[in-house]
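Changelog-adjacent note: as of this version, every example in the card shows the full chain rather than a window. The one below runs 454 residues end to end.
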Amino acid sequence: MEPVRWLGGGPQLAATGFFRVEKHDGKWWFVDPEGRLFWSHGIDCVRLLDATPIEEREDWYESAPWEQAEFAEFVVTAATTLKGHYAGRTPKGFSFAGANFRRKYGPDWRPQSAMLIHQRLRAWGLNTIANWSDPAVMFQRRTPYTDAVSSRGTRLIEGSEGYWGKFPDVFDPTFAASVQRSMAAKASRSAGDPWCLGYFSDNEMAWGDETSIALAALASPPEQPAKRAFLADLRAKYESIGRLNAAWGTAHASFDALAAGTAKPDPARAGDDLKAFYTRAAEAYFRVVREAIKAVAPQQLYLGCRFAWGNTRAARAAAKYCDVVSYNLYQRSIATFQFNGEADVPLIVGEFHFGALDRGMFHTGLVPVADQAERAAAYQAYVEGALRHPQFVGTHWFQYQDEPTTGRVLDEENYQIGFVDIADTPYAEITTTSRHVGERLYRLRSGQRDGTRF
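Full-length structure tokens:
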């Protein structure tokens, strides 16, 4: 089996030395550095050693391995939390997954397990190490991988809200500076590396509806850069507050009074202005990120922001600036997915999964199934649906290993969603099915079965 790229009877395109995207025979593809068609069949969080909180939980366990010297490297002294009991705190955590790696492979567990992981991925028909994976595995350069940049450190729009937090203020200088700093850290690592497909940015941002960013700006303090930018647009368009009030059905005493207030206008009256500013902000986000990536890695791809929520305006902006538009699509099938960005562009799934409770875990994850056999069948149906879709160039499963039984530190998720369990034992049902999908991947994508069209 050769699941990595389409060799044998596959087309030979121009070799550029890096991954690119190209439409071939009516379908979008990655093209690998040597000019072979490539469809990204990948998995997230490869050897990501999720920790679980142990503060206030010491009596949950029969023993305390975090107190043993051989497992000291798996203690997290001040973990980042966003949700759950520890939200806003920095509790002590411990990676049982890491401890199990050391138990299984010994003191030399890092290179030993990394070598086995690459062998497993190949055996399971997988060809991409996807987001949030261990650099020590990625940079062995035995399996193509993706990397990511972040706008963390950016000033946020105070009036915004979202599941993972507020929206970045793309009009503040800290936004461009944060993305540039994040990308600069990739120099001499993934930047310029032919094994790296490209870069995602951030993840599951609060894109809301097509007025949300503008309304959030208006609900922010007067010094908010996004609010200042929006008001500058309004001043230029309306010239007088009276004309704006007439259009919006408001009664602001002046533009300064509008700046000082936080009231939101009626979207039915102010909708055109709100939507125009939303487009301006969305395009600024993708443009600045693209520029930061291309400045350091000009020949590598911008893979989008991994939409979990979005709208047509956000999708249009992504299509304008991203080489590939990414979605996290937690559903049973994407065979009939319709891109709402009104463009024919390549798409990739950054996350999907299915989980079951027949193997001792307590949560199925976001898409439940009855048992491991059904989980494997759902995996095959999902990926093969994507293979038949002309725009998808890959699917990335979330994630390599089950989450901790007692919940990960970040938000206490404890999903049964791994290809391996917390003791590094593969789930035979899904790994066997993944291998079967990988064996047939290029025949399915190209529309051939045993040499015939279908």
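Structural remarks: The first helix runs from residue 96 to 105.
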